[in-house]
Amino acid sequence: MSEIIMPAACDDNTDISQAETLLSVRNLAVHFRVSHGAWPWQKSTLHAVNGVSFDVRRGETLGLVGESGCGKSTLARALIGLAPVATGSVSWRGEETVAGAGRKLGTLRRDVQMIFQDPLASLDPRMSIGEIVAEPLRTHAPHLGRAEVERRVSTMLERVGLNAQHAARRAHEFSGGQCQRVGIARALIGEPGLVICDEPVSALDVSIQAQIVNLLRDLQRERSLSLLFVAHDLAVVKTISHRVMVMYLGRVMEIGDCRAVYDGARHPYTRALLDAVPVPDPALARLRRGAPLSGEIPSPLNPPSGCAFRTRCPYATDSCAARTPPLLRADSGQPLAACWHPRESGAPPTD
Ligand code: SF4
Prior knowledge:
alpha/beta; 12 strands; binds iron/sulfur cluster; globular; 11 helices; four-stranded antiparallel β-sheet; Rossmann fold
């Protein structure tokens, strides 16, 4: 079944700026000790996430984008305790969670659920679809009786577009898109406040991607759900995000309202990513504003001094190597950009 994708969330005029802040992340860092060099006992520190701060409000989608290896999936996992936090804080509804661990982390895992990239691999092949979807209820609502659990599972399966009669089937009997619907049902059955979607559509065909994105947007509206939508495809992120955060080598390069980022990105990296999105119209392609992205992302074992992007940035100067640029905004309404020489909003580069 094909489906026309809905208008971009960038065009959603719902004002979420006054909504309650659910998730608050401050200066979060995730480091790993890894073997490095010729000798296995030689260990180096891999800086996967470096000093990242952001909020997620009730009912909003924060799109998290960047190339593979930029740390976005590690960041997503660290939020729910699946990656080790070196420094920084994560607060859920105003309560510190990472440092508090134990009971508070348990509360976070009930209120914050995750949807994974590979829908089939994330479903246990030994369990029926009904058992998989019921699992969060059995963990976080053990007081519910069997009949009530089955009723909620049936309702949830139908809500995500599956047939409740198929609850006894196994994951391998379903397509990739159907498996992702099962993953969404499992994530939502416990009525979480936030769902972290880690590349949820990148393994699916384009027409199925549209169906899944539309389903997530419908469920968000129904439930005032917040989404952290991790993806490398900026076209997909634009269809669902209210705000967008761009990461590079474990750091935030730019963050702002979706429309402000897509129409007026100030960071050279964001502009390069946007210019890499294919457009069918050659006239539009000629209006590209940034320099094309070239070279490889440096190793997080040995990141560049100063600005993390400077080894690939055509506008780099000596000052870019000397100091790490903070996230700054030129005017209200513009995105925050971590760049010593940000591009003028909406204008082509002049140097
Ligand atoms: Fe480029 Fe310098 Fe800006 Fe980094 S700080 S993005 S190197 S201009």
